[in-house]
């Protein structure tokens, strides 16, 4: 059987058993779906539980523990060896449970956003998830779409595709419907649109001939080896930090072991102590806890309608300093409604609401569109020059139900209010050709057969259509559009734009030939004025950004006056009228003057903007050291979305090209969701910093306690199994709780952090030393007092030091509260996970002392009342002492220098 690209269209349709006018019936589509399966590429397999478990066992820490257990068995210490293996199993189990939850979260997040496809089913245009496409489906394509199956084209109007994903050709490829020889290479098959390619311009339709792994992209995917997932910069920094600590702590542990053996201590005891110290000192759980914190943050963002594609985006969001935001659909609702027609010499107001029946009125007096020639022709042109499809009913908020561009849907609704139907108009004036919208002309045209000639219906930007028109439709008929009339139209455009209206010019031309130049000698019918209301909460979100030190810059293709009105309404340029800059061409960044650079950097609004200008503005701000977020929805936005540090695509109206290029997708297209995601990004980084600071200061304390005791000749205040038990109880649970905290309420009242700033900077290293030293002093003091003051036995004294260290580490979690918060009501005390972790940890510590089976293994015994009093007093001392040091440092340095002190 010949390949589809070598067959005539009629043959392909016959083979597929489908009509291009009606598409497949739903029942037939379901049957084919069962036969061919879902339209999906075979993805890298799910990470299996065995693989995740194996990853836990690859750690050098695990090998050290296993070696310690082997030594214990070798020296005849079966109980100790078994206990080490139990601790190893518990540690591995916690890491496994955490990582598998994070991995499954990532897999579930990726399934939240399904690619849609526009298909004909049962004679109607529908939007369905692309995985439900089957061979024989008629798929409709528009600029910005990702092709979701291999299609044999049956229609192509100026259709061009980016096929670089398949062929490596960077230039768009023009498409048509003609068959080609069967030996034509992939890049020459002009009658095909392949899965995974992007529609860069024009429109068309095709019948699906291959789906899923049977497509050309599927064949390539079958040959491509599975790539490892990308690790975020934060994870890489944590790995480097852990790697550096491994060798330092191994060296310290070895020194302590050698010193102990030299001093005559038991060899097995010192070897296992050294190994236990190495395990305790290295925060091996950092990557796991970080992954869990990032994954939980991604789910929180998903709950606020922000889907994150990469973990790295979560981190970068918190450092964002500049947000370039599209007006339409992000600041506004993208719920376009035609509210006014500007005609020659008059304005016609249109009733609001998708289902409202008119009225059309001039100065309150109803107007019949059937009797007003210019109004009737403008309404008909809006329906003819249109690619949207309107369905019955509305959503109760004035927005039309349908498929297509919101502006085109609004024109269809306006026509419906006048009793007009696009289908009926096309029956009388069938469409024979389309001149697709392009960013160069900023116009679109359709050609219709009308009797023995052709009618060109044109819509586009007012300035562009006016430049191509030489006549204007008056009440009495067409008249010459002279300079005075043009000037009057420009004044009316300026005034309407100042009211916040988006304007679309409508024009026509009659010609004897279907291929006549579309944008010459037009007759201007009038302008449609569309209103797009602001989204609720946008002004508050902009104010939140301002309070957080984030610069918001509005970008729009609309008229400058419209942009200025919207910018003023949302609060850009507080206290003054926002300055609007129109850039017709992208500036050469390396060539602009310092004065011009400053002007562009200070501007809050850019109007009539092009994709090239967007790209240049992103580069300009990045060159100045800013972390830039950019919103976008179109094909031409993709370069700027990729260039930005955080590309944000619109989930509702965004094209698939934009979504593929972005790091984040907004399900609700709302600017407020960006601000919520930025807040979450800051909270996540703060949480990671908190548990890193907590873990490292606790681990440093354990190293110092054993090291100082060994160097000073004291008995060991902690035994190896006790260290391992503490590492399990007081490190893991509080650290996890810190990692999932809700964050400080004032996190968006501070400037963004420097993205190059280390997780543990110089000031925080200082605090790690302070915290570690204070816990060390408290524990050793309690141990010495128990031995020499209370005259407790060796085991009871070790129990006192064990309990002191355990409780001191648990109280230490409250040192992680933000400095700016109150002492007793803050982000840590409000975190319910903290209290749950402390409750669990205290219960496990009490079990270690009072449950005979466990206490005998750990060599612990219940202390007397005076021992408990010493434990409670000594364990609270580091919390009180650290709080006093913070208060004194703040008093000496002043409130402005809090960050210099290393805010936890």
Polypeptide structure, described:
With 904 residues, the protein is of the alpha+beta class. The chain has four domains: 4-43 and 116-223, Calcium-transporting ATPase, cytoplasmic transduction domain A (Distorted Sandwich), CATH 2.70.150.10; 237-300 and 677-901, Up-down Bundle (Calcium-transporting ATPase, transmembrane domain), CATH 1.20.1110; 306-332 and 535-669, Rossmann fold, CATH 3.40.50; 339-531, Calcium-transporting ATPase, cytoplasmic domain N (3-Layer(aba) Sandwich), CATH 3.40.1110.10. Helix content is 48%, strand content 17%. The protein is built from 30 helices and 28 strands. Strands 10, 11, 12, 13, 16, 17, 18, 19, 20, 21 and 22 form an eleven-stranded mixed sheet that branches. Strands 8-28-27-26-9-23-25-24 form an eight-stranded mixed sheet, with helices on both faces. Strands 1, 2, 3, 4, 5, 6 and 7 form a seven-stranded antiparallel sheet that branches. Strand 10 (337-343) and strand 11 (346-350) form a beta hairpin. The radius of gyration is 35 Å and the shape is elongated. The protein starts with 8 loop residues before the first helix and ends in an 11-residue tail after the last helix. The model is unreliable at 224-232, 394-399 and 895-904 (pLDDT under 50).
Walk me through the topology.
Layout: H1 9-16, H2 26-36, H3 49-57, H4 60-74, H5 78-110, E1 116-121, E2 124-129, E3 138-142, E4 150-162, H6 164-167, E5 173-174, E6 192-193, E7 198-210, H7 216-223, H8 233-262, H9 267-281, H10 286-303, E8 306-308, H11 311-317, E9 322-326, H12 327-331, E10 337-343, E11 346-350, E12 360-362, E13 365-366, H13 373-384, E14 389-394, E15 400-403, H14 406-417, H15 422-428, E16 431-435, E17 443-450, E18 453-460, H16 462-468, E19 469-474, E20 477-480, H17 483-498, E21 502-511, E22 522-531, H18 538-547, E23 551-555, H19 560-570, E24 580-582, H20 594-602, E25 605-607, H21 611-623, E26 628-632, H22 638-643, E27 646-650, H23 656-661, E28 664-666, H24 671-712, H25 720-739, H26 762-788, H27 794-812, H28 832-850, H29 852-858, H30 865-893
Parallel strand pairs: 9-23, 9-26, 19-22, 23-25, 24-25, 26-27, 27-28
Antiparallel strand pairs: 1-2, 1-3, 3-7, 4-5, 4-6, 4-7, 8-28, 10-11, 10-22, 11-12, 12-13, 14-15, 16-17, 17-18, 18-21, 19-20, 21-22
């Amino acid at each position: 059987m010949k390949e589809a690209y070598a067959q005539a269209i009629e043959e392909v349709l016959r083979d597929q058993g489908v009509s291009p006018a009606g598409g497949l019936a739903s029942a037939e589509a379901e049957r084919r779906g069962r036969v061919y399966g879902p339209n999906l590429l075979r993805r890298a397999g799910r990470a299996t539980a065995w693989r995740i478990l194996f990853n836990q066992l690859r750690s050098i820490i695990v090998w050290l523990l296993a070696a310690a257990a082997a030594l214990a068995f070798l020296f005849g210490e079966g109980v100790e060896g078994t206990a080490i293996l139990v601790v190893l199993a518990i540690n591995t189990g916690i890491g496994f449970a955490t990582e598998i939850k994070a991995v499954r979260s990532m897999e579930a997040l990726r399934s939240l956003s399904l690619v849609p496809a526009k298909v004909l089913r049962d004679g109607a245009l529908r939007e369905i998830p692309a995985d439900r496409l089957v061979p024989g489906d008629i798929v409709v394509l528009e600029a910005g779409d990702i092709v979701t199956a291999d299609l044999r084209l049956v229609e192509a109007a100026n259709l061009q595709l980016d096929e670089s994903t398949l062929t490596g050709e960077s230039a768009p490829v023009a498409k048509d419907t003609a068959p080609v020889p069967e030996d034509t290479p992939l890049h020459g098959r002009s009658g095909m649109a392949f899965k995974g390619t992007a529609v860069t311009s024009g429109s068309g339709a095709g019948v699906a001939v291959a789906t899923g792994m049977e497509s050309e992209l599927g064949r390539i995917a079958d040959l491509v080896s599975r790539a490892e997932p990308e690790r975020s910069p934060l994870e890489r920094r944590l790995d480097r930090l852990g790697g550096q600590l491994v060798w330092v702590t191994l060296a310290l542990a070895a020194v302590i072991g050698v010193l102990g053996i030299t001093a005559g201590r038991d060899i097995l005891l010192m070897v296992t102590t050294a190994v236990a110290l190495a395990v305790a000192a290295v925060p091996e759980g950092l990557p796991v806890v970080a992954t869990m914190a990032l994954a939980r943050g991604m789910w929180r963002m998903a709950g606020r309608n922000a889907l994150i594609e990469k973990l790295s985006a979560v981190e970068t969001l918190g450092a964002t300093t500049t947000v370039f935001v599209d007006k339409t659909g992000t600041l506004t609702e993208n719920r376009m409604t035609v509210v006014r027609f500007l005609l020659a010499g008059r304005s016609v107001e249109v009733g609001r609401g998708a289902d409202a029946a008119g009225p059309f009125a001039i100065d309150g007096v109803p107007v019949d569109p059937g009797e007003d020639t210019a109004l009737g022709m403008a309404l008909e042109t809006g329906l003819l020059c249109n690619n949207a499809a309107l369905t019955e009913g509305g959503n109760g908020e004035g927005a039309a139900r349908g498929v297509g561009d919101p502006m085109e849907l609004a024109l269809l609704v306006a026509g419906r209010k006048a009793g007009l139907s696009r289908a009926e108009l096309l029956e009388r004036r069938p469409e024979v050709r389309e001149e697709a919208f392009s960013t160069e002309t900023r116009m679109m045209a359709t050609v219709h057969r009308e009797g023995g000639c052709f009618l060109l219906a044109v819509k586009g930007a007012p300035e562009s259509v006016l430049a191509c028109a030489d006549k204007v439709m008056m009440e009495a008929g067409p008249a010459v559009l002279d300079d005075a009339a043009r000037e009057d139209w420009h004044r009316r455009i300026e005034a309407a734009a100042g009211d916040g209206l988006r304007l679309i010019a409508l024009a026509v031309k009659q010609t004897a030939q279907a291929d006549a130049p579309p944008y010459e000698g037009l007759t201007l019918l009038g302008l449609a004025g569309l209103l797009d209301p602001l989204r609720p909460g946008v002004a508050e979100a902009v104010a939140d950004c301002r309070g957080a030190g984030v610069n918001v810059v509005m970008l729009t293709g609309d008229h400058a006056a419209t942009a200025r009105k919207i910018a003023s309404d949302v609060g850009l340029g507080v206290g003054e009228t926002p300055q609007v800059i129109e850039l017709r061409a992208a500036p050469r960044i390396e060539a602009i003057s310092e004065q011009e650079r400053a002007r562009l950097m200070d501007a809050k609004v850019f109007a009539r903007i092009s994709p090239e200008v967007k790209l240049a503005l992103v580069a300009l701000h990045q060159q100045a050291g800013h972390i830039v977020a950019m919103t976008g929805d179109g094909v031409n936005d993709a370069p700027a979305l990729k260039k930005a540090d955080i590309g944000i695509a619109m989930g509702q109206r965004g094209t698939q090209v934009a979504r593929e290029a972005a790091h984040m997708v907004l399900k609700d297209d709302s600017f407020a969701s960006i601000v919520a995601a930025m807040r979450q990004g800051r909270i996540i980084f703060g949480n990671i910093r908190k548990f890193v600071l907590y873990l490292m200061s606790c681990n440093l304390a354990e190293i110092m306690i054993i090291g100082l005791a060994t160097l000073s000749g004291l008995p060991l205040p902690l035994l190896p199994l006790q260290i391992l038990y503490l590492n399990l109880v007081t490190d893991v649970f509080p650290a996890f709780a810190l990692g999932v905290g809700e964050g400080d309420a004032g996190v968006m009242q501070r400037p963004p952090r420097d993205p190059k700033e280390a997780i543990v900077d110089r000031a925080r290293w200082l605090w790690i030393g302070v915290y570690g030293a204070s816990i060390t002093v408290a524990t050793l003091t309690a141990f010495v007092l128990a031995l020499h003051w209370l005259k407790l036995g060796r085991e009871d004294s070790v129990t006192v030091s064990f309990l002191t260290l355990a409780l001191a580490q648990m109280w230490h979690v409250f040192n992680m509260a933000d400095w700016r918060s109150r002492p007793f009501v803050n982000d840590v005390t409000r975190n319910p996970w903290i209290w749950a972790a402390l409750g669990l940890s205290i219960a496990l510590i009490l079990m270690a002392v009072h449950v005979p089976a466990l206490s005998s293994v750990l060599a612990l015994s219940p202390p007397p009342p005076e021992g408990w009093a010493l434990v409670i007093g000594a364990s609270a001392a580091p919390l009180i002492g650290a709080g006093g040091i913070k208060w004194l440092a703040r008093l000496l340095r002043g409130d402005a220098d809090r960050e210099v002190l290393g805010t936890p």
